[in-house]
Amino acid sequence: MTLNLLPTTLLVLYEAEHIEWDYIPWQPLCLAALLSLTFNFLTNFGIALFGPLIISIGMLCGIPASALIDILFRQMPLTQTFIVGSAAVMVSFVLIAFPMAKMWRKMEKMCC
Predict the structure, then answer these.
(1) 3-state secondary structure of 22
(2) What is the mean pLDDT of residues 6-22?
(3) Where are the transmembrane segments (predicted)?
């Protein structure tokens, strides 16, 4: 953030860039900043409390849920990309959630 402050300040001071403060949507901007702060705080708190596995599973499940909300409430079309992406997220969920190494060891013991 500090690195971005210097070029922005120089552009405004030398009038290469003009910012019209009246046209900035302050309410959505502040709400987005507050939601981002809340998300980051809860993510860090959740990692400290539950561990990174639970948080990563929750974040993975949020991606298809968000797309599903877009389809149901914003009438976005259900595309093949959505289906493939949701399937990929669910496969990654399975790979993270289940102890695959233990399952492979049990299968090796049963076969040999």
Answers:
(1) helix
(2) 88
(3) 23-42, 49-69, 81-101
